[in-house]
Amino acid sequence: MTTVNAYNAYAVANLRPPARLHDEVLSYLERIQATLDPFGGRFLVHGAPEREAREGEWPSALVLIGFPSMDAARRWYDSAAYQELIPLRTRHMAGDAMLIEGVPPGYDAAARAGALRAAQARQAP
User: Fold this and answer.
1) How far is CA 114 from CA 10, 49, 105, 118, 120, in A?
2) Separation of alpha carbons 79 and 76, rounded Å
3) What is the phi/psi pair of residue 121, to 5°?
4) Residues 36, 76 contacting (CB under 8 angstroms)
5) Euclidean distance between CA atoms 104 and 47, whole angstroms
6) Three-state SS for 12?
7) Is the pTM of this model over 0.85?
8) How far apart are CA 104 and CA 90, in angstroms?
9) pLDDT for 47-66, tens place per residue?
10) Comparing 2-11, 18-27, 43-52, 99-108, which segment has the lowest mean pLDDT?
11) What b/e sequence results for 44-68 when a residue is b if at least 16 CB atoms lie within 10 Å of its CB, and e otherwise?
C-alpha cells in the first residue's frame, strides 16, 4: 500500500542539549506543540534517542517537524507564539535550525542527475 506524505516542508534542528535540561527548556517543550497546531506542524523526529551514525559522527539531538507547506513552516516560525518560546531554548542550548522544502511527489533522483549532467555539459569549456 502506498501512502502520500502530508508534509512538503520541514523544520530541522541539530541541537546540542546539556546533560541536565534547564527548567526554561522544559517549559519550551511543554508549550511548543500548541504553536505548531495552527500551522499543521507535527514532530516526526524529536531527539532521536535511538540512532546509529553510519557515516561520520552525530553527537547532537535531531529534531524534524513536518508542515504541509513551506509557507506554513515560515508562518509557524515567524508567529508571535513561537518567537516567544525561542529564547527559552536558545538561552540554554546551542544548535542550528532551518526550514527546508521537501521534494515533490514522484521525485526521481536519476532524472535529477540527468538534468545536472546536461547542465554541466553545457558549461564545459
Assistant:
1) 26, 38, 18, 6, 10
2) 5
3) -65, -35
4) yes
5) 26
6) strand
7) yes
8) 32
9) 987 888 899 988 889 999 99
10) 2-11
11) eeeeeeeeeeeeeeeebbebbbbbe
Identify any residues that bridge with 45 across adjacent strands, giving them in sequence order.
Answer: 64
pLDDT tens for residues 83-108? 999 999 999 999 999 999 999 889 99
Q: 3-class DSSP state for residue 51?
A: coil
Alpha carbons 31 and 70: distance in angstroms, whole number: 22
- DSSP secondary structure string for all residues of 53-108: -SSS---SEEEEEEES-HHHHHHHHHSHHHHHHHHHHHTT-EEEEEEEE-PPTT--
Q: Is 27 helix (H, G, I), strand (E, B) or coil?
A: helix
SS (H, E, C) 76-91: HHHCHHHHHHHHHHHC
Please give the Cα distance from 115 to 66 (Å, whole number).
28
CA distance 125 to 121: 9
